[in-house]
C-alpha cells in the first residue's frame, strides 16, 4: 500500500483581488480546469492531475499567507498551455488576466 501526501491550502491561504480577499479553493480551481478539459478523454483524472500540478507551482508565489488571483490565473494558463493549447484558450476566455 502506498500513500500520497497532499496539503490543504484553503485553511491557510488567501487569494487577493484589487477589491477583495477570499480563501483559496482547490475545488474551484479543479472545476475551472475540468470544464476546460471536457473535450479530452477522462477529463476528471486529467483535471485532478493538472490541479495538483498548478497547486504545487503556486507554492513559491505565496507571500504572507496570500497569493494574487492574477498569479493563479497565470500559473494555470501556463500549465494548460504546456498540456493542451485549446484548454488554455478556453480557460483564458473565462479567466482573463487583470492588468
Query: What's the total count of β strands?
Result: 3
Global mean pLDDT: 86
Structural class: mainly alpha
Total of domains: 1
Radius of gyration: 14 Å
Distance between the termini: 47 Å
| Main beta-sheet strand count, sense and barrel state | 3 strands, mixed
Content of β-strand: 5-15%
Q: How are the strands of the largest sheet arranged?
A: 2-1-3
Describe this structure in words.
The chain has helices spanning 26-36, 43-58, 69-83, 85-94; strands spanning 14-17, 20-23, 66-68. The longest helix is centred in the middle third of the chain and has 16 residues, at 43-58. It contains 4 helices and 3 strands. Strands 2-1-3 form a 3-stranded mixed sheet. It has one domain. The mean pLDDT is 86. By secondary structure, it is mainly alpha-helical.
